[in-house]
Amino acid sequence: MCSHRTSSHQSTLQQQEVELTEFEKQLLNSYQGDFPLTPEPFQTIADALNTTSEKVQKTISDLLDKGVLTRFGPLYNIEKVDGVFSLCALKVPTQRFDEVAEQVNSYTEVAHNYQRDHEWNMWFVLAAESEQALEILFNDITELTGCPSLNLPKQTEFFVGLKFEA
Amino acid sequence: MGLKHSKQMAKEALAKKVMAATQTGLPICDRPYQVIAEQVGTTEDELLDIMQDMSSQGLIRRIGLVPNHYALGYRFNLMTVWDVDDSEILHLGQQVGQLNFVSHCYQRPRKAPDWNYNLFAMVHGRSEDDVAQQVETIQQLLGPACRDMAQLNSLKILKKTGLRIR
After folding, report:
1. Which residue positions in chain A have pLDDT lower than 70?
2. Domain A78-152 maps to which CATH number in 3.50.50.60, 3.40.50.300, 3.30.70.3460, 3.30.300.30?
C-alpha cells in the first residue's frame, strides 16, 4: 500500500516534516543515486550498511508509505526519449485564477502547474511531440485563457539533480 | 550495416520497454531486476547490462530513493530568475548549477519587454534564512554580470502529473 506514491491534484505545498530514524537517514543520504545494479541490490546495500536485506526492503517500503519518498527506482531523462518540453507562464487576473487554472489543467499536455507570488503567477510545463506541436498548443492556451503568456523552452541545461540531505 | 543496425534497434526497443516497466518504480523484493526482466522478456543479466548502458548514456539520470523534500523539512523552495549578461551566461550558469542547494539550473530565452531573465535556478532550504543566504550566494557569484533578479515563491501546486512516456 503506497498511497502517497504520487501527489494528488490541488494539494497544498506545506507538508509536515517527518521524524526519521538514524537508519532511515543513512539510507536516504546514501542511496538517492547509486542504487546498486546487482542481482540482489538490497543485499548489496545491506552488506555495505552492515544489516539485512529484509531490513533495507522494509525501511524503503515504509518510507514510501509514509510519503517520505515519492518514488523508488530509476529517474529518466525523458527528453532523451521523445518529446519536447517547455516552461510556460501566464499573467492571470486574480479574480479569474481558479477558472484559468482549470482551463490550463484540462490539457493532458500540461504536466506541472504552480501558482507563484509574482505578476507572472501561473507556471506550467508543456509537453508535446514536436516543437511545432508545442507552439500550436501554447498559442491555443494563450487564446483560450486570454492571458498574457510566456513560452520559455530551455536553451542550456546547466544542472538537474540535487540530493536532499535527510 | 544490416546486423549492427538491427542490434541497435533491438536495444532501443528494449530500453523503451524497460522504461515503461519501471515508470512507477522498482519492485521491492530480493531480485527486483529479475521481476522487470521477466516483464520485458529478457534475462536479468541482459537487463542489468542495458540499464548500465542507459545510465552511461544519460537516459537514466540516477537510480535510487527519490525523497519528497517537504517531508525532509525542505519547505522553502524558490524559483530564482536572473538577468545575466549574454556573453557570460554559459560559464556563470555552469557555476550556479554546481552550487549544492540548486536542483535545476537552465538558460531560457528572454521575451523583451515582458521578461528579461535568462537564467533560472531552483533553490531549496529548511528555513527562510537558508534560502535568503542562498540567493545572496548566487548574487555574489554572478557579480556585475547580473543586472536584475526576481524570486518566485510557489504558493500552490495546481497540477502535478509525471511526464508521460508513450
Report:
1. 1-15
2. 3.30.70.3460
